[in-house]
């Protein structure tokens, strides 16, 4: 680096002095307890409580509980709130977000008339299961028979009706007939669909056949991690186009199943916190 690239010493000293002025703590109250400190590099301001810092320096434990925790199932949420909650605990629920929040030290006045800091919180953030996501991924789509067959083979444990591996046998048949030419699909009065196909050999007309598939099948799916399984009906859909078979399903009102599962989660929380004076509030605190 040439000498012309180095800033004058006076400019460096001025920058350091300016940074020190920016970083100088500023009092926020007249008691000298709360101070604001700004990082001269990032510009981020942090509020320091000198009384709390002094407590932490002199004691092995914190002056009070605070912080945020994230739980993944109702049982864990109830266990945490039961352990740490009290008379000032508030529990909020957001149905749309399917989340529940417990403000352990709520800012509403407690029995002694003193509001809490509202900075000790536990959030139940539900996650959908792998099985639920897998079935939702193909919901409403028509795919090739081999892809559909592989999906059924992978997720067969969630199929409860028709029983006895019927749907798995159909999936295996789809794989076996992937090279045939499908001609039509007819729905019968007994609720099944018959797929008619023709197997061609050496460019000449070959034998014809048909494949019966159920119109609906039933799944047992747990929507959320830690929740019980719910039954949901899937309606089979097929389309024959240019000799190719496309097949899929439509799940029967999956959103309502999620709503019912979330309502059961709230009931589980209400039951688990029956000894705590904290009813579930519909909404979300600031």
Question: Can you tag this structure with a few keywords?
Answer:
7 helices, 5-stranded antiparallel β-sheet, alpha+beta, 5-stranded mixed β-sheet, 31% strand, 286 residues
Integer-rounded radius of gyration: 32 Å
Series of H and E elements: HEEEHEHEEEHEHEHEEEEEEHE
Mean pLDDT: 80
Shape: elongated
Q: Tell me the strand order in the biggest sheet.
A: 4-7-6-5-16
Beta-strand proportion: 25-35%
Give the termini distance in whole angstroms: 53 Å
Tell me the number of structural domains: 3
Helicity, as a percent range: 25-40%
Individual helix count: 7
* Major beta sheet summary: 5 strands, mixed
What would your notes on this structure say?
- It is a single chain.
- The chain has 7 helices and 16 strands.
- It is 29% helix and 31% strand.
- Helix 3 (74-84) packs parallel to helix 7 and helix 5 runs antiparallel to helix 6.
- The chain has 3 domains: 1-63, no CATH class; 65-125 and 254-286; 130-252, no CATH class.
- The two termini are 53 Å apart.
- By secondary structure, the protein is an alpha+beta fold.
- Strand 13 (216-221) and strand 14 (230-241) form a beta hairpin.
Short description:
By secondary structure, the protein is an alpha+beta fold.
Strand and helix layout:
Blueprint: H1 9-23, E1 26-27, E2 34-38, E3 45-49, H2 50-58, E4 67-71, H3 74-84, E5 90-94, E6 99-103, E7 120-125, H4 130-137, E8 142-144, H5 145-154, E9 159-161, H6 166-176, E10 181-187, E11 192-198, E12 208-214, E13 216-221, E14 230-241, E15 244-251, H7 254-272, E16 280-282
Parallel strand pairs: 4-7, 5-16
Antiparallel strand pairs: 1-2, 2-3, 5-6, 6-7, 8-15, 9-13, 10-11, 11-12, 13-14, 14-15
Helix pairs in contact: 3-7, 5-6
């Amino acid at each position: 680096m040439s000498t012309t690239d180095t800033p004058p010493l006076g400019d460096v000293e001025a920058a350091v002095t300016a940074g020190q002025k920016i970083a100088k703590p500023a009092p926020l109250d007249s008691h000298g307890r709360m101070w604001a400190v700004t990082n001269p590099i990032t510009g981020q301001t942090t509020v320091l409580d000198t009384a709390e810092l002094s407590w932490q320096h002199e004691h092995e434990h914190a002056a009070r509980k605070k912080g945020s925790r994230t739980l993944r199932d109702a049982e864990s949420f109830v266990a945490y709130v039961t352990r740490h909650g009290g008379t000032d605990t508030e529990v909020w629920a957001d149905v749309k977000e399917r989340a529940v929040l417990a403000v352990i030290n709520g800012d509403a006045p407690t029995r002694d008339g003193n509001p809490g800091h509202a900075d000790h919180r536990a959030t139940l953030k539900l996650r959908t299961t792998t099985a639920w996501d897998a079935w939702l991924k193909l919901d409403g789509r028509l795919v090739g028979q081999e892809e559909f067959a592989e999906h059924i083979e992978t997720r067969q444990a969630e199929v409860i009706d028709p029983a006895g591996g019927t749907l798995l046998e159909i999936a295996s048949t789809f794989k076996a007939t992937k090279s045939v030419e499908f001609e039509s699909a007819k729905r019968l009065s007994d609720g099944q669909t018959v797929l008619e196909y023709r197997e061609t050999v050496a460019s000449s007309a070959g034998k014809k056949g048909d494949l019966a598939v159920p119109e609906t099948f039933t799944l047992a799916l747990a929507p959320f991690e830690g929740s019980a399984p719910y039954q949901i009906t899937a309606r089979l859909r097929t389309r024959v186009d240019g000799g190719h078979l496309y097949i899929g399903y439509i799940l029967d009102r999956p959103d309502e199943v999620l709503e019912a599962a979330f309502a059961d989660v709230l009931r589980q929380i209400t039951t688990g916190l029956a000894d705590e004076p904290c009813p579930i509030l519909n909404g979300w605190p600031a």
